[in-house]
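A favour, since you know our structure tokens better than I do. Go ahead and set the record down below.
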Amino acid sequence: MPPPQLDLLADPERLGHEVARVAAEISADHPDGVTLVGVLKGAVVFLADLARHVTVPTLVDFVAVTPFDGVSGRTRVVKDLDQSVTGRPVVLVTGIVDTGLTADFLHRHLQGARPSSVRVATLADRSARRLLPLQPDYRALEVPDRFLIGYGLDHRGRYRNVPGLWGVDAADLAEDPDRYVSLLYGADPSAGPGR
């Protein structure tokens, strides 16, 4: 069996720097405060770090949607906001924007709650897969067309708590969801696999 294809795209230090930069941009754009709306579950780690760096009054809420499956062509909200955002600025915080379908759906959904504005912040912008002309207002990283794990992003619930953001082979994960467990857990993420 060939060795797993595993690439460190951003180590914890770089992630910390980029998250602080995005938080500074959000703070500058919303001097009177902002509501951060995280998309469950992939944005949780990013949102937690982002919220700690935002320097203006901040409310935090969450939404969850069914994954876009490409077959039915439908996405639906399975967990909506717990508080009103009417008249307030909102930043939708997501783990990844790739095709833009889910982000666009949630952007339109949040606009229905009549906030004063809706902007999109993403940990990872995978623009090579974009189907809609949606551009995130804030992005921590531009990433290649790879399957991503770590820093909140997962495969079947695995790898969310891995430090750093990693690019992996989707076919490897489909064949064996635990393929990267021994390489990622307990290893120094800056050293790379097998070191």
Remarks:
- The domain at 12-144 is CATH 3.40.50.2020 (Rossmann fold).
- Strands lie at 6-10, 34-40, 58-65, 77-79, 89-97, 117-125, 138-142, 147-149, 165-168.
- The chain is about 25% helix and 25% strand.
- Helices lie at 12-29, 44-53, 101-111, 170-175, 181-184.
